[in-house]
């Protein structure tokens, strides 16, 4: 009996030891499982970067072709024609730079960086430039975009008539669509609506009598045409000027569209509300010298209306074209419009000595 008790104790002790080992093994397995979970929860960005590095290239001909198609569409919407770097011949900008040659002395936000052309986007530069597009707004002002990969991330840099200093673009469409192209997704460009009056006027001479007191269209100065931006406390305003039309877009998206006509008859004083609304987009307009346009409501009897002037300022050592806008009976300026959204943001608080401001 005593022997049986001893044997039972030995068996029980062995079982306890085995149970303890099993418990430790289970704990070790749980720890290992948790570590794996942590590794798998690493950011998508890291996973994407590893996957692309394995392929040996972050940028390829398909993406480059997709970007080229997008820039053509986007340029049309912006009323700007961009020239693409062909991979061989430097792009010469109106502001005096040659890219990609001059990337070796470029700065970003005033800081020295390494920036260079890199077709595959896998270089060791701070900014590996995979595409360059330039638009010469005038003989001395240009807008240049560098589509770059920084640590494998798509970033669009812009240089606007400011020497060789670059900054990340604030243009939402460019930023988002470059990311889409990089990720192999579709792009989207919002095209402006074409009014029936626009298609009609394109085939009509400015001097032709259009009826109802319209002696043809008034033509805007060529230097004034394009898309312009002005940043104020209420947000970003937009101004779009074509050959015979002007569109003002407020910061909250309200649109005021005007078609410019020469008035050949006196303005009647007794006009019904329905008649006024039917001519809401018509403006009685006239040229102010060679660089300005004035316009009033078609049935407006009082007030000075609105006026627009082309202007030029030296910004960061470069001459930049502007459009000055004002309303009222004098020629004072209410808003200054810049040739790009990025420049409007940079100069939002600027005041120039040779501009007569209303406020």
From TrEMBL:
> Is the keyword Hydrolase assigned to this protein?
no
The UniProt regions of compositional bias labelled Basic residues, in chain numbering, are 45-55
Keyword Chaperone belongs to the record: no
- Region (Disordered) residue ranges read 24-60, 189-217
Biased composition (Low complexity) is annotated at 24-44, 195-205
Q: What keywords is this UniProt entry annotated with?
A: Signal
DUF4767 domain: residues covered:
57-182
Q: Which residues form the signal peptide?
A: 1-19
What this protein is called in its record is DUF4767 domain-containing protein
């Amino acid at each position: 009996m005593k022997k049986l008790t001893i044997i039972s104790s030995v068996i029980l002790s062995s079982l306890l030891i085995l149970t303890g080992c099993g418990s430790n093994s289970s704990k070790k397995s749980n720890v290992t499982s948790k570590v794996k979970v942590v590794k798998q929860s690493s950011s998508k960005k890291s996973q994407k970067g590893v996957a692309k590095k394995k392929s040996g290239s972050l940028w390829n001909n398909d993406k480059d072709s997709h970007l080229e198609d997008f820039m053509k569409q986007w340029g049309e919407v912006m009323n700007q024609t961009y020239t693409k770097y062909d991979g061989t011949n430097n792009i010469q900008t109106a502001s005096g730079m040659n890219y990609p040659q001059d990337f070796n002395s470029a700065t970003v936000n005033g800081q020295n960086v390494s920036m260079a052309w890199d077709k595959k986007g896998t270089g060791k530069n701070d900014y590996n430039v995979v595409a360059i597009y330039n638009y010469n707004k005038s003989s001395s002002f240009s807008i240049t975009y560098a589509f770059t990969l920084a640590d494998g991330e798509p970033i669009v840099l812009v240089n606007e008539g400011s020497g060789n200093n670059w900054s990340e673009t604030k243009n939402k469409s460019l930023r988002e669509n470059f990311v889409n192209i990089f990720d192999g997704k579709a792009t989207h460009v919002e095209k402006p609506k074409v009014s029936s009056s626009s298609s009609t006027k394109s085939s009509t001479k400015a001097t032709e009598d259009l009826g109802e007191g319209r002696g043809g269209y008034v033509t805007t100065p060529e230097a004034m045409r394009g898309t312009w931006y002005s940043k104020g406390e209420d947000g970003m305003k937009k101004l779009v000027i074509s050959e015979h039309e002007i569109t003002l877009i407020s910061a909250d998206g309200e649109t005021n569209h005007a078609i410019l006509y020469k008035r050949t008859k006196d303005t009647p004083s007794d006009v019904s509300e329905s008649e006024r609304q039917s001519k809401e987009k018509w403006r009685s307009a006239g040229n102010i010298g060679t660089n300005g346009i004035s316009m009033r409501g078609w049935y407006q009897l009082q007030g000075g209306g609105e006026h627009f002037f082309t202007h030029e300022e030296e910004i960061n050592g470069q001459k930049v074209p502007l459009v000055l806008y004002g309303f009222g009976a004098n020629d004072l300026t209410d808003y200054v419009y810049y040739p790009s959204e990025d420049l409007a943001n940079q100069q939002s608080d600027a005041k120039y000595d040779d501009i007569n401001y209303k406020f």
